[in-house]
Amino acid sequence: MKFVHRIFIILILSSLVTATAKNSLAEFLAFSARASFSDQAEFTEQALSLELLVIGARPLLSPPPKAIFMSQLAGLVKAQWTAWDYHRAAHEQFKKMQLDYGFAIVVDGLRRFPNHAALYVKLAELYIGLDRMEPPDSKRNRLQDAIAAANWARELDPQSPFPLHILANVYHKLGDYASAILYREENLRAHGSLVLGYERFRMEYKGRLEQLRAGHQIALANDLAHRYVSNFPTDPAAYGLLASLYYDDHEWDQAILNFRKALALGAPDDFITHLRIASALVALNREEEALLHARKALNFGADQPKALNVLLSILVALANSSLASGNLDSAIAYLEEARTLKPEDSTVASLREQTNRLLFAHRRLEALQLSLQGVRERLQALKLISDLVRDDAKTFENYLVQITIYQRIKSPLNAMQIVDDVIRLFSIDSDAIDALVQTLRSLGYTRKAQDIERRAHHSLERVASRTGA
Length: 469
Fold this sequence. Notes:
This protein has helices spanning 3-14, 19-34, 37-57, 65-78, 83-95, 99-112, 117-133, 142-156, 162-174, 177-191, 198-214, 218-231, 236-248, 252-264, 271-283, 287-300, 305-324, 328-341, 346-371, 375-391, 396-408, 412-425, 430-443, 446-467. It is mostly helical.
């Protein structure tokens, strides 16, 4: 029977006060009990509404026969309900956000069924909903009421997961993540899964870990992070948080391991993760591995000075390592990358200059060794030293090697041309001139060496006379 038809019958019956009317009402109620629950809940909602109206308007109504009748009718309908009927009716109001109606239904149900755990769970949910609707300055502590209701439910039905779920949610709302986590973990241990709230569970772990780290409670944070990983073994955020704790505690191997697990499970491929992996690898003297992550960190955080500085330090460390092992080409490559990243860096420039000197010395030696071999090798030596003179024209040693090679390939004219270049470029450099004289003498150009030495001596005398020395 449709709700409007019922109201029509009720209005007719409400004008009757005879026994016949009461019998008809009893028959109607029997039919109502057989009707679908949704119609009955709608009917009861309207009856409750009128019941509340009667309470508010009673002083003005003398007597209010229809309203009183409706109130009595609501009571008669509810008298046939089980505890679960009350629970379902309250839940319908909860879904519609008619929280006051839902609250009234649950309270009425608890009067009749004071030991029904599910009604206490619903009461706790309604308290949480009512708390959201309270003004900010309200003094009523609805959440504490929700905790009390959930604890009653837990005592009445220890096997139910719902009270623990409610308690965790309330403590989450209060910002007490430690308590929220304990209730969810208890629920997980007892039932193997959670009712709902997995995302909140993750948020609680993260929030509590931040609190512990801010308070420097490292041991507690480590224990909590391991529990997070244990409960969410496929959550990349869990491994990321655990890795960060290991990183802060300088446990580099574990930090790297867990950062890489997080990336493998889908953690964001971001600046901070790669920067920390790179820094940890550097601390373990694993610069070549670190270089890859440092480059990625700079790629993701091009505007981050820290990423640039870490990459520069790795490149310099690798350059020094290459120098120590005699791998000059690698050292140059690392330093060239560093100079490209930060041309004005004085450390890079100084190391680059030092490496160049070593590299050029190595090439001079290589050219001299080649010049002692066959024709093809001598030509290679000549090209090598010519390129070196071009790249490093300010180093007189390059010219001396060039002179030596020309003498070895029987090209004295070219050798003497280089001698003239040295005199022109380094005439005031006594060390260069002395070295040139010694080279010429060793190659058999004794007369040329004496001539250069005499001219150099006269030049020094002229300089001395001008300065009054």
